[in-house]
Structures are given as structure tokens and as C-alpha cells.
Fold:
Amino acid sequence: MKFYIPQLIKLSLLFLLLQSCATVNAKYSVEKVNKHIIPVNNAIEMYNEHDSKRIQLFEDKLKQVYQNPNFEDTKFVWMPLDELKAYVSYIEAIKKTNPEDEVSGIRLYFSAYPNRDRLNDRTIKYPGQQTIFMVPTVKSNNRNERYNVMNHLPFVIKPESSSNPIKGTFVILEKLMLSYYKGQ
Structure:
């Protein structure tokens, strides 16, 4: 998996949603999605800004850190449409199964592959490369008027029983929150 630019991810995800709206019975109208689509010229400018400022700035340091003179930083992440749809369906199932909690969306976290998989003690396919992972969010009772994204907290489910792993208590992932917002 290759990636970095958050705006291009947003563009890609919204483009996929727009295509779904046009070809499948989607819940979202084209008008609702269109207001979030970044014009192509802006997306290219944003990609170039990232490449010329961030990638160029860190590339030499990353070569040192990963002890690889040929190291190239991640430029994008690709995800199969079926996997994306399956994850959205999974989140919708969690929401339907736990109606007392307000499942509000998905956070995309920037991350990097470690050099080794510590759980399985094996080599990682893309050591040092950036990637993303997704975590469902629940609406917070606290209100941050300035940054609405902070009103949606990442969680995992502590299942009530092994027979239904998506029904249970939502546990906020404090370690994935900015230190300022922990405990909210």
C-alpha cells in the first residue's frame, strides 16, 4: 500500500461515492457528494505541494532511518472498491446493532509499517512505508465548536458475547486521540 496525501484520499473516496450514486441505489444524492469533491486542478496542486515540500524534505532522512539508500516514501494508498464497500457495510451493521450509541463515521489514520510483525514474528511486506488504517467513530457528548472532527471519537467494541462480536460496549481508543482531547 502506498499513500500520503489526505486530500487526495478524500477526493478518491468521494469520487467512489459519486460513482456509486450514479450506478447503484445509493443513500446519498449526487448534490450532497458534489459539494465535497475537490476540483482536479486543486487536487494536482495539493499533490505537488505535498511532493515538493514534504516528500523532498524527509526523503533523505527516511533513507537514513530505514538504512535503505533506495527508499522512496509512499505517494498514495489504493483500496479495492469491494473492500471499501464491505467496511462501510460493517460500520452500518455496528450502527444498527448498537442503536443506543451514535456511530458517526470513520477516521483515517496515517501510519507506517514497522520493520517486523511483532505479533507473528515475520517480515513486513512494505517496511517503513506509509499507509492508512480506518477506525469507526462514535459521536462525543462534548462539543468542540471550532473543530467538528474532534466530536467523533475512535472506538472498538467490547462484545457482550462471542456469538455477536459487533454488539457491545464502545471503548474509546485513547491512544489514537490527540493528547489535548484524551478523556473526552
Observations:
- The two ends are 32 Å apart (CA to CA).
- The longest strand covers residues 103-112.
- DSSP finds four helices and six strands in the chain.
